[in-house]
Automatic annotation (TrEMBL):
Protein name per UniProt: CAP domain-containing protein
Pfam families: CAP, CAP_assoc_N
Originating species: Terrihalobacillus insolitus
Region: Disordered, residue numbers: 32-58
Database matches in SUPFAM superfamilies: PR-1-like
PANTHER family: SCP DOMAIN-CONTAINING PROTEIN, SCP-LIKE EXTRACELLULAR PROTEIN
Domain of life (superkingdom): Bacteria
Length: 357
């Protein structure tokens, strides 16, 4: 694969629910944090948004980084610049992720739909996202982009306004930088620094709806995916969670984890069980937890841990959510783990960590 020339970027983070659980072979130590997604149907209001400050053309933020210039570019231009992607992952929103990563310290994925780039997510080193950069402090980025709790947009006779909570403003602010370009900045609340960046056009933002929204007009309908398409979507998100977890571990000088197929089977089973039986917990309705699930598959280990999440719009958002929760962060950055298995089913995410005996 050709050398990856990644660009510095900014970040977005979806809402979600999550839980961290860790234990060793002899003693169970629970560390629970259950937080449901802060975006619900009641938060989508069809009305006339209140007036909010409009950005004048002369106030448009000057974006020097190459990252922002990819929205609207063709797939052939993308391939000409980067070569063939590491892989292509189908998303649940109609576009396909072209993933480029060295699986250590560089990661970027371009969402391509109808031969055009419609969104970009990136993190890691050597990224061109001026005037921001990964690792930059919250205050510095805020000075450049002026974060606001309300972000509005208009399309012909339709008007939309996203309303961010205090927590969202601190961990995943949204900024409109041009008529059809928005940026979500994902911040690490523990280091108060920029962790990753997502750039997206209006259509993708309205499909994902990661914040409370008031609108006048119509909202686009999400694509209806077949069972076979969902298998492909879930599989792609599993690999994204795995890759991004290792990128983050590398950021904090932790050892890289190996993919474990058998552990991934356990993780997928739990995600599917939560989705089909409409619950969100580390323990299934019959009372079984990770320890029992691993035992059922005859998996031998000396320590294991689990993170779960629900209703995040995609894998990058889920990973950034875990990073910002103390228990989940601890599981992601534990030194002792050697293996990782990830299972995703319809916006339910499970990652199981393992230390072999």
């Amino acid at each position: 694969m050709r050398g990856i020339k990644l660009f510095v970027l900014l970040l977005l983070l979806g809402g979600g629910a999550y839980y961290a659980y860790s234990f060793d072979a002899s003693e169970v130590n629970d560390s629970e944090t259950d937080t449901k997604d802060d975006l619900s149907l009641e938060q989508v209001q069809r009305d006339s948004p209140k007036d909010s400050p409009k950005q004048n053309e002369e106030d448009t933020i000057k974006l020097n980084g190459q990252l922002y210039k990819w929205i609207g570019k063709t797939a052939s231009t993308l391939k000409g610049e980067f070569g063939a992607p590491t892989r292509k992952d189908l998303s649940s929103y109609g576009y396909t992720w072209w993933v480029y990563t060295n699986q250590e310290n560089q990661y970027i994925q371009f969402g391509v739909e109808n031969d055009k780039v419609v969104t970009v997510y990136a993190t890691g080193e050597n990224l061109s996202a001026e005037p921001a950069q990964i690792g930059q402090g919250y205050g510095e980025v805020n000075e450049q982009f002026d974060f606001n709790e309300k972000v509005s947009l208009s399309e012909e006779f339709q008007t939309y306004e996203f309303k961010l909570t205090k927590d969202q403003l601190e961990t995943r602010p949204l900024v409109k930088v041009k008529d059809d370009i928005f940026i979500q900045f994902y911040f690490d609340r523990f280091t108060e620094s920029l962790s990753s960046i997502r750039v997206l056009n209006t259509s993708v933002l309205l499909l994902q709806r990661p914040y409370k929204i008031s609108y006048r007009g119509e909202l686009p309908e999400k694509p209806t995916n077949s069972k076979e398409e969902w298998k492909e979507i879930d599989s792609g998100m599993e690999q994204q969670v795995f890759d991004l977890t290792n990128i983050i571990r590398n950021r904090f000088d932790k050892s890289m984890l190996d993919w474990n197929d058998r552990v991934a089977e356990v993780a997928f089973g739990h995600s599917k069980d939560m989705a089909l039986n409409n619950y969100f917990s580390h323990f299934s309705p019959d009372g079984n937890g990770l320890k029992e699930r691993l035992k059922e598959k005859s998996i031998i280990y000396s320590a294991a841990g689990e993170n779960i999440a629900a209703q995040y719009p995609d894998a990058p958002a889920a990973v950034e959510g875990w990073l910002n929760s103390e228990g989940h962060r601890k599981a992601m950055l534990t030194d002792d783990y050697s293996d990782l298995g990830v299972g995703v089913y319809r916006y339910y995410y499970t990652q199981n960590f393992l230390k072999k005996q």
